Amino acid sequence: MTDLISENETVAVFGQFTYTSVVAQQTFTSPFSIKAMVKNGLITYFQFMEDTYASAASFRVAGEWIIQQDADSTKNFSVSENS
């Protein structure tokens, strides 16, 4: 955790952590952020954000991904082990 900000019932937390995918044994570090709402000592809302692309990539052991980022398929790009 690097930063914690609170105002009334709203809390925001920022930081980073390191994951290891157990079977593939690939490790990556991801930034994270959390927004929470606390009422009467209980969390009533919790939102967690991380680098889900890096998380998914840690499970890939071979092959190529074709990424479509736009309705225009000419803007697609590929991600392979060497990328």
TrEMBL record:
<dbReference type="InterPro" id="IPR032710">
    <property type="entry name" value="NTF2-like_dom_sf"/>
</dbReference>
<protein>
    <submittedName>
        <fullName>Uncharacterized protein</fullName>
    </submittedName>
</protein>
